[in-house]
Design brief:
Length: about 350
């Protein structure tokens, strides 16, 4: 296992910052001049690679990625959660960048190979092996701002991780941003690097000015998502989240939560959420975030238009924890995988 600066043999993913430890194997495929992606067929040592200073991705944003997790199962085996759905979403993002989309079977093989090659670094639950497929446009041409890259580098590496938010399952403080949009309306569902860059300024400002963990974007009073997760309201009867459109990322964990909520007997509502409803809901319900990294993270407090709005007593609510437990039990093989979300792999 490696850190960004030096080899680490026995680092603890539960104390190291999320995403700073890495497995020692990587899978790599290259595509040149619009040809097919070529993969050696096996993982290789995780090492730095070089890029030409005029590489397309460095200048014109032709880069995208996915994030998924492999979990150590109760019986000691290893399984990737919702592999096929993440692969399909990656293909859609690459297509939005107008680059050649790698074959679905190739992408799946490379993800599985990377996971199996780094399986020994997978921590026990509640930890996991975070898998990061990444694609870069590598055409060397600074005159190609208005054309997609005709060459690309696709690779998959692994990071042993604990909790995304420091402190484990704790209530988050969220600043509601009512002026700055999350991203451009036509590009919100693309898991591209530029989309995350757009959220960086508001997130840093919210942390500095409001002590917030994240930002909930609600430009014009219309709630969408945070900088890295989807947003939900829940009480003992209903689960509510923003209806899908092109203004925000269509979370794989989001769809998992909605399926499990239905299984558990909740009424599911996908619709718009107003700021007034946020205030009203806080007096009687709960809120949480969902995402591959965060899984399900409870929201305790909103910083909204100068007010501090607390959900209940500000602590994780029973419905949020019920949904989280239902999801994590499936991820680690402690509950029946009735939706067939797990892909078993060697490890």
């Amino acid at each position: 296992m490696t850190s960004p600066s030096s080899p680490v043999e026995a680092a603890d993913p539960f104390t190291a910052p999320f995403g700073t430890l890495f497995g020692d194997k990587i899978t790599i495929a290259r595509m040149e001049a619009g040809d097919e992606y070529r993969y050696s067929g096996s993982a290789e040592p995780m090492e730095n690679f070089s890029l030409h200073p005029a590489t397309h991705a460095l200048h014109y944003g032709s880069t995208c990625f996915e994030g998924m997790k492999a979990f150590r199962q109760d019986d000691g085996s290893l399984a990737i959660f919702r592999l096929d759905d993440h692969v399909q979403r990656l293909a859609k993002t690459v297509a939005q960048l107008y680059m050649s989309v790698p074959d679905v079977e190739l992408v799946t093989t490379m993800i599985v190979d990377a996971a199996e090659a780094n399986a020994a670094h997978t921590p026990d639950a509640p930890g996991s092996l975070y898998l990061r497929p990444t694609l870069l446009g590598t055409q060397v041409n600074i005159g190609a701002a208005a054309t997609p890259s005709n060459s690309a580098l696709f690779y998959v590496f692994a990071s042993p991780v604990g909790d995304y938010f420091a402190g484990g399952v704790r209530p988050l403080t969220i600043h509601v941003e009512t002026e700055t949009p999350r991203t451009t309306p036509q590009f919100g569902r693309a898991k591209a690097g530029a989309n995350y860059a757009m959220a960086l300024g508001p997130t840093l400002d919210a942390k500095a000015r409001h002590g917030a963990d994240q930002v909930l974007f609600a430009s014009g009073g219309d709630v969408t998502e945070t900088g890295a997760a989807n947003f939900f309201l829940v009480d003992s009867d209903r689960v509510i989240t923003r209806e899908l459109d092109d203004s925000f990322l269509h979370g794989v964990t989001r769809s998992s939560v909605l399926a499990l909520a239905t299984d558990l007997g909740y009424e599911v509502e996908e619709r718009r959420i107003s700021l007034d409803e946020l205030r009203e809901w806080a007096s009687r319900g709960e809120a949480f975030l969902s995402g591959t990294a965060a899984i399900i993270a409870p929201v305790g407090t909103l910083k909204l238009e100068g007010d501090t709005v607390r959900f209940g007593d500000g602590q994780p609510g029973p419905n949020t924890l019920r949904l989280r437990d239902s999801l994590t039990d499936i991820q680690v093989g402690a509950a029946t995988d009735s939706h067939q979300w797990l892909t078993p792999i060697a490890g």
